[in-house]
Amino acid sequence: MIDRRRWLSGMAAAAAGALLAGCDKLTMNPVVQQGLAMAEGLTRRAQRLVVDRKALAQEFSPAEISPDFRANGSTSPGDPAYRALVESGFADWRLVVDGLVERPLSLSLDELRAQPARTQITRHDCVEGWSAIGQWSGARLGPLLDRAGLKEGSRYIVFHCADTLDPNAPAALGRYYESIDLIDAYHPQSILAYDMNGAPLAVKHGAPVRLRVERQLGYKHAKYVMRIEAVADLAGIGGGKGGFWEDRGYEWYAGI
Ligand SMILES: Nc1nc2c(c(=O)[nH]1)N[C@H]1C(S)=C(S)[C@@H](COP(=O)(O)O)O[C@H]1N2
Ligand SMILES: [Mo]
């Protein structure tokens, strides 16, 4: 099982690499994907990882919510612009949606809360080897992107965050950011969460808004989201690999 998982994650990395290299016509071809999944007699679960990107992540009952949900990575960003937002109770916070969109948006927290929403109880899996179950409520990403209107040619959604995780790196590389493709952006469980376990998101968990992208590992779930940018490719963003950790060697597609 361990070998299979390792093989699969290697394959996911290869597929992600090919995607980034622009070979999407091949890797997105269902026949090619089926063929890859059938090889080595993969289990149903493994096939799902490769073929069924639209399947829902498992949801849990309220009784299963973790009493202590660990906070990880940035937990109290010191960036002055972010501190000022915290002081004002996020009254001046705006979520910018721009890039390859017809109608750029700048939404207050109240406006975001008025968007089509979803609540889900899911398990967060960090690559460092811990998991926790929490309830998340937030604006569905798909309807938000439809409101902005994606332009033809947009293929990735980039999440720019407020926190500098690596103060020693040049500015463009020290700031946290993440990216997902349109399959995950339009996945029904992909939300911009503003509530956790029924209360407004705490600073340590990414206040006022963090991404939940439930089919992927923890580092994809960008906290402190300030700006959402639709792009054609990831080359010009940060270190060019699609995320803070990806720029440091992590896989871009971190499917669970
Ligand atoms: N902006 C930002 N988002 C981030 C991180 C971070 O350091 N900064 N850490 C990531 C990692 S590795 C994990 S496991 C989760 C942790 O979320 P939590 O603090 O709510 O547990 O956030 C992810 N999103
Ligand atoms: Mo993580």
If you had to describe this structure to a student in words, what would you say it looks like?
The protein is 27% helix and 24% strand. The chain has nine helices and ten strands. The strands form two sheets. Strands 2-1-10-5-6 form a five-stranded mixed β-sheet. Strands 3, 4, 7, 8 and 9 form a five-stranded antiparallel β-sheet that branches. Helix 3 packs antiparallel against helix 4 (44-51). It is globular, with a radius of gyration of 18 Å. The protein starts with a helix and ends in a 25-residue tail after the last strand. The relative contact order is 0.17. Residues 1-33 have low confidence and may be disordered. The site of ligand MTE has 19 residues, from strand 5.
Set out the fold topology.
Blueprint lengths: L1 H19 L3 H4 L2 H9 L5 H8 L28 H8 L7 E5 L5 E3 L1 H5 L3 E9 L5 E10 H8 L7 E9 L6 H4 E7 H4 L5 E6 L2 E2 L9 E3 L12 E7 L25
Parallel strand pairs: 1-10
Antiparallel strand pairs: 1-2, 3-4, 4-7, 5-6, 5-10, 7-8, 7-9
Bound molecules: the ligand Nc1nc2c(c(=O)[nH]1)N[C@H]1C(S)=C(S)[C@@H](COP(=O)(O)O)O[C@H]1N2 and molybdenum atom (MO).
